[in-house]
Give the backbone structure.
Amino acid sequence: MNFNLVSPFLFLFFFLLQFTCILAQAPAMAPMPPTQSSAPASLPPSQPSAPASPPPTISSSPAPILSPVVASAPAPGPPGLPNVIKILAKAGSCSTFIKLLQITHEVGEITSLLNNSNSITMFVPSDGAFLNLKTGTLNSFSDQRKAELVKFHILPSYFSLSQFQTASNPVQTQAGGTTNREFPINIATNGTAVNITTGIVNASLTSTIYTDSQLAIYQVDKVLLPLKFFVKPLPPAPAPEPSKPKKDDPSSDSSSVNVVPSGATSLFPHTFHGMVYPGCFFFFSVCFVYMS
């Protein structure tokens, strides 16, 4: 009887124990999703929520501020060419010659020569030298003459003061020509003094305005006036006349008869008559004497 009462209790005990174990091993129920509302959704419990503002501060030291990226410039080239106008303006007392350079556009030609690595020497008269000209001389020149006047003050080569001592006269100028009626100059030195002769004026170098290995600028005390402006050029030599062909004598055949000079032809009849007449007279006289 006791065995029959214990058996149901043991069966119930094992059933509860087994059910408890099953509940312990079952997974936890997933939480229900929250109902949608205007409030922002909360993050899952496993992830800590971050505040909306302000942004999180960075504990590490700030990165250094870099300068803006600039394209690398090319390596600097050779120094710029000398500016003749600026050089003369800085020297002073050259305003008249500067105006001539500008109105004749010769300053552009000078720049072009220097750009092409040509060497030049310039003689620049002072403003006082232009004032010493006869009144109206400069204004009487045409634009072409003014351009030639500027070129007459430029040599197409570089001359230092010492190189003037070995200059070969006549010296050609940028105006061209070396004959007496064109645009040459003669340069003479006496120690350190340099004199320039044009055939019209005799000028002297007074100072050095600028010099380097390519350009030399000297100031002169007179305006260099070319001889061509005041003396008419020599006329060109006449061309030799072509030789005239000899006319043939129609009364003779030039292929078989030798032409006798006119003087000899005119004397021949007189000689013939002078010999024949006396001979005939002598012959008849002899015959007459013999027969008698």
Notes: The helical segments are 2-25, 84-91, 95-103, 106-115, 127-131, 143-152, 262-291. Residues 36-51, 56-78, 252-257, 259-265 have pLDDT under 50 and may be disordered.
